[in-house]
Fold these 2 entries.
Entry 1:
Amino acid sequence: MQRLAKRFSMLTLGVVALIPGCKQDDFRCGDDSECKIETIQGFCEFNSYCSFPAADCESERRYGAQAGDGLAGVCVPVGDAGSTTDVSTAGSTSSTTEPDPPASSSTTGQGGTDDTTGSNTTSGTTEEATSSSSGGSESTTGTPVDMWTDDFERPDSPDLGNGWVERSPGTFALAQGRVVFEGQPMAYQDSVFYRPFDEALLDLEVSIEFTHVGPFDFSTPQLHTRIQEDSLVPDEQSINAYIVYLSQPDRIDISRVEGDTFARNESEPIDPPLPKGVTYRLSLRVTGTDPVELVGRVENLVGGVWTPIQTVTLTDEDPTRIVQAGSFGASGSNNVTFEYDNFAVVADPM
């Protein structure tokens, strides 16, 4: 894991997503204020195209979906990176702004197949800014947030290392830079691995990549947030947390778990069901206390772009909702048949 010293203000994790139907006209900006997607502040480059934070680029900027001249999705060269509020020398500009992206909850499932990844595309998505373990940048607006990632690129080991806590040591191990299941079948409460409680967060967005290498039955890849320390009772299958998981290859769920009970649950179908052998990304954003708002998403990689397949939301107003900061991590259930990679967390994502 690399703890990033730089800071981000961002809505979600991902690379610049090319919005279907939004590339009809190149967009030229006049200043930085015109390069904003929801809460993500971008930059108006000297060529009058918008770029957005992208830590996997050497310049830490990547052109947005409506950049012209073949630059959409391309890293801004280091020597070219820079923004201006006076782009009169950079060519003509448009007085319009980039269109608002569609709401993330409007995703409708997979609509096609990407030849390079073998994964399915979606019929609707949003443009997003990015960060990865390679670095970050300072946002020009909004409240800065911390981000860190763990790419698990460490020597093979029966321990996950890097500060991870396993409730049942030996359940997961490191192999070829991935987290693999090594233990006996067990309940998800027992197999959870999480960050130390002195790293507890209240509002956050977490994500993890997973690849199924066997049948989906009883696997349920999942992310946990706001894990309450006092709920991890020894010798009991108990946990209090918010989780997102795939209950089946054709369904994504968000739940508030109390002990061994699903106290609240929302579910959305995935059509067609996810095939195995493909890498997906699961994410969960949790914000607020009254109410607690949750957004879960499963995505696939299409042409280098993380593209939403399905989104599920939950608004928790119950008296027993979790309003305290907690730990966060991942888990699996029974016969785990998937591998994990590239865990990431953003604090205070709103």
Note: The mean pLDDT is 76.
Entry 2:
Amino acid sequence: MLRGDILNKVNVCTHGNLFCDHYQVKGKNRCAHTPWGKRAEETVGSYISYKFFWFKIRKTNSCILYLHRFAGNIINEWAMCKGKPEVLLVCSDGGYYNLLRIPCILSKAGCNVSLLTTENNILIGSRFVNCLLPQTPDIPSLILLLKAHLDENQNHYAWIIVGDDGVLFELIKYRGEEWVEGWFPVDMKSDAVDIISTKEGFVRACSVNNIPFPASYICDSIHSAHAIAEKAGYPVMLKTMRGSSGSGVRCAQNAHELINAYNSIKSPPKFILQKFINGLVGVTEILMEHGTPVAWISSYVYQTIDGRFGPSCARQFMEHVSIEKIILQLGKMLKFHGLCGFDWIHNQQDDSITVLEFHARPPPGFHLGVACNVNFSDGIRDMLLGIRTVRKPIVSSTTGKPKRVYMFPQHVSRCIKERDFKDLIHWIPGIKSNWYYDIFLNDPILLKRIIFHSFFGKIKNLYQKRVTFFRIFAQ
């Protein structure tokens, strides 16, 4: 059984599970083994309240949920006895959209999934999480807990996944320490750390390794950026040295927009000015085994959320001969191990693919591989067993058109946030034969949390804004 930063072991699990160790963390009971990983109240007997929808249902009135939990614990205990590979997912609550399907993919690969995360992460509700370790309030304390946990469980995990950029950047601060070497996605002693952590390092590495990349310039002031833009020609792109989900990306069509873009990214002391390329933006998700790509899929970004340069919420699958070559170049350059991806742009005038950015953490589209005959679960299983099999995408459709997918929950969130309720028609099953239905029904508790904690929260915020507007207008 795993051990984390755990205090005061409780002999009897108040969940009523026979095969579950229970611990008391920060004065509250917590189950560190069940896939549900819920906190429970200390009450007399076995009357435990579960927060379900908006009200509490007593254990006596939720037999199905109890039996499901009880059966799940027996299955998990049996699976651990069978010696399945242990995988640890380390993430914060900020990047949960990218990781919603990762526990399911790992579970289908035959892995026991442990989750180490910050508080209020929606992933703790996933039924595919076998072991929920104690949660922390912020990322720095999460890394300290990770260090203590790995010191106590040396060589326990077959694979440790860094789930988001916040955790990745915090881990890089420990560069040179022995505990972080050996399992980090790249060699901590190599230049690959600088390449994956800053856009400046990635720009220079692409130039040295002949990877197609837009003409880019490192600027230290708005004056130098203006001089370069006048010489190179507009439009241009401004990018901060670090950023994710389009947060530090702006486009400028002229000198006035250049100044506004610079101010909107909080006037950084150093930033990248990049020549704008007109084309279709896309993303490629990759599974790499120490620099060797073993599975990948590519798709156009058909629709985005939170602005033009935000994360994708609708994809259209594609193939291109240049992408495999770029993947091989990136693997050779970084020797990356794990789930990663990169953004690119397809210039349809000369049919060229140009790399825009590399993601040293899992992008959100790995579960879509089954629509392109790429099963990442099989790829992960073979990788952990030492079997190297390359899985290339095959984009096909019965209608002759490339398959398109509206991503859940990203696309629904966009419709609610932008009040584009007509676009919700895409979630009617069978409405289009060349669409891939993305909603997950195999994880009902996680689905419920997304619906009632995310979607209803956005609807409530919209309603409150409208009420506030009418009150001000009435006054």
Note: Residues 215-275 form a domain with the Dna Ligase; domain 1 fold (CATH 3.30.1490.20).
